[in-house]
Task: structure prediction
Amino acid sequence: MRRLVISFTLMLAVMASCTQRPDDKEFIRDMYENSLYEDYSFLEKHCTESLLDKLSEQYDYAGEGYAVWKFRSGAQDGPCDEHSMTCIEDEGDGWYRYTATDMGISFTKRIKISHEGGKCMIEDLADCHRLIAPLPSGIDMDNLQDCTVPASFTPDDFRWMGGNLRMTVYSKDLYDAVEISQMQLGDTLIYNSERMVINQMVEAHGGIDINGGLDEGGCCLVGYEGGTYVARSWDDHSTYTKLGTAELPLDEDFVIIDCGLFPEYPADTIRSGQKLYLEMINESRPDFFQLNTLVTIQNGMITEINRRWIP
Result:
């Protein structure tokens, strides 16, 4: 009886050793941090035939080889020598998402792992591009109660009989600093309300030049307040997103703070005769626009219009 128990225990131990699943995350970490993907013998041992064919097709040099750079960011150079795994997330069905640094550049890939003969096999490898969009504005266009918003309008948009102003409301494009720090080649940036695929990133001009910067049709991101980045356009102006139009009542004591015609001129504070003041400037500089105008709203009424001088 004791012999049977021992035999059964040994059988269970053998079965467990045969069916024990390798640690996928440790395999991925070891593969990247020790640059094992650069070793062709490692690839041929741990990649499926279909993935080897794929890496072979993507090899764009003379002769035969594998596109081993597909396991990295794909960048040719970086700000430092850091080469480490940041995190590995299990997405299920054999798929993992790993984020790592490559020469100091952060990137993310998706990798699919299966098991064969007690070893990890890489079935597929895919880029993992992200969409980087401005942070939500926090402005509720259906309930403009207590807020200050960038806006555009002209003196003709005032409805003096009803005491209203019709304006177009915007939000300044701000980006989360953490998202910007994780930005990588191939990601898509929403810039000036349009999509821009990131093909190049260079630290320059006190920020990050994307796709050659403004001079080459790209853009520039610079650090801003509160853990954010702001997109810059020409003359260091920020970019804005149009939120919609609104018509709001003017508070009976609403104030206009208006810049002078030149930057050295002091601002005018208009507490009375606002209608006459706007009629007088209607021909010289009638446009209030989102780059230079902030409208303060309290209890659903406009209490202040502030236009600042910009180049």
Observations:
- Residues 28 and 88 are 8 Å apart (CA to CA).
- Residues 147-170+242-307 form a domain with the OB fold (Dihydrolipoamide Acetyltransferase, E2P) fold (CATH 2.40.50).
- Residues 2-19 form the longest helix (18 residues).
- DSSP finds six helices and 19 strands in the chain.
